[in-house]
Design a protein that fits this description.
heterodimer; A: mainly alpha; Tetracycline Repressor, domain 2; two-stranded antiparallel ribbon; 76% helix; flat; B: 73% helix
């Protein structure tokens, strides 16, 4: 766990290992997992619930570390990621790899022993899916990378649910579908105004491969099934009016912002206000939607 | 006798290294204590000591 600085060897700081886990991404993962756990029917001991969420957080951290290990060269080419520990030269790659593997093994093992092996299996599969299928295979090779790769980010609420119930039913599958269908509009909005960065790094994001018009069409198109999946739990009588009204309201705003992106014809990032608004709102949307979902389910329970 | 593959550390560099090692050790210590407490609580829950 050392890093070369000038002609001497310095150990990496603990903050660099923390940065490897992508804490901001981890916070969204933990939040959606917690919502899945709270929304699930049945009871779970608070210690086991805490352990489940901790394992999911550590698994997400493992994904971040393994992703940064593999993409160190690509990260160095993008302004947004160039200051991460590996491209900035504050840590060597082997340390990141060992840290990521250790976190993955530890999180899956503890989840299996302390919670249940279904949630451990789902956690292991999601780490594998993000680190291998998305990072190594999809991301550098296809503009559909974040469509299929979005599945990795959609697992946490299912894992949270499985930690309580020990099974996976229709409702956690719907939670999975919401995040899975939310990912393309969210990331493609970012990819539109960060097109130059992705292009410099050689990542085949949709705006770079198929153009901005096609990307805007796809963003608008994906917003409809996403909204349908988000509202469906209410129509299936799995939630109450709080979630029903809120989900209609939130999805209406999302669709309006996606419509404005669809109508926008700007080619440079400086004139992509609708894209930036959609990206920012999409994060708030997911937080509010899942929070209200969990809150409503707890009210019903 | 094997020669080191880097220049000897200066006083300032040694101070930085010791500071980083100490900070990492503290974080590792806190994490290990936290895990000990967690494993104890998990054991108590699994064994059913508290019913």
């Amino acid at each position: 766990m050392t890093t070369a600085v000038r002609d001497i060897i310095l150990p990496a700081e603990w903050r660099d290992f923390w940065a490897l886990t992508k804490p901001r991404v981890m916070s969204l993962v933990v939040f959606t997992a917690l919502c899945g756990l709270l929304a699930a029917p049945g009871t779970i001991n608070p210690v086991i619930a805490f352990t489940a969420i901790l394992c999911i957080a550590l698994g997400a951290g493992a994904c971040g570390a393994l992703n940064q290990y593999y993409e160190a060269d690509v990260d160095a080419k993008m302004a947004r990621t160039a200051r991460r520990p590996l491209p900035a030269g504050r840590m060597d790659r082997e340390s990141a790899l060992q840290f990521g593997i250790a976190l993955a093994a530890f999180s899956v093992g503890i989840m299996g022993v302390a919670v249940n092996w279904l949630s451990a299996g789902l956690l292991a599969f999601s780490i594998f899916f993000y680190s291998v299928v998305y990072t190594i295979w999809l991301k550098p090779n296809t503009p559909q990378n974040i469509v299929i790769g979005g599945a990795a980010g959609a697992f946490p609420p299912v894992i949270g649910w499985a930690a309580v119930t020990g099974d996976v039913t229709l409702l956690p599958v719907l939670l999975f579908a919401i995040i899975f269908l939310w990912t393309p509009p969210h990331f493609w909005a970012l990819a539109l105004f960060m097109k130059t960065d992705y292009g410099a790094a050689g990542i085949p994001m949709l705006p770079n491969v198929s153009g901005q018009k096609v990307t805007r069409n796809q963003i608008f198109a994906y917003s409809f099934p996403m909204a349908a999946a988000a509202i469906l739990p209410f129509f299936l009588a799995e939630t109450g009016w709080v979630y029903g009204v809120a989900s209609v309201f939130l999805n209406a705003i999302f669709l309006i912002l996606a419509f404005r992106v669809w109508k926008n014809e700007a080619l440079d990032a400086a004139h992509m206000k609708p894209e930036k608004q959609l990206f920012a709102f999409s994060i708030l949307y997911l937080f509010l939607l899942f929070a209200l979902f969990a809150f409503d389910r707890m009210l019903i329970a | 006798m094997t020669q080191p593959d880097h220049a000897p550390y200066t006083v300032d560099e040694t101070r930085i290294i010791r500071k980083r090692q100490a900070a990492r050790s503290r974080v590792m210590g806190v994490a290990l204590v936290g895990l000990c407490i967690l494993f104890f609580l998990i054991t108590v829950v699994k064994v059913g000591v508290w019913g």
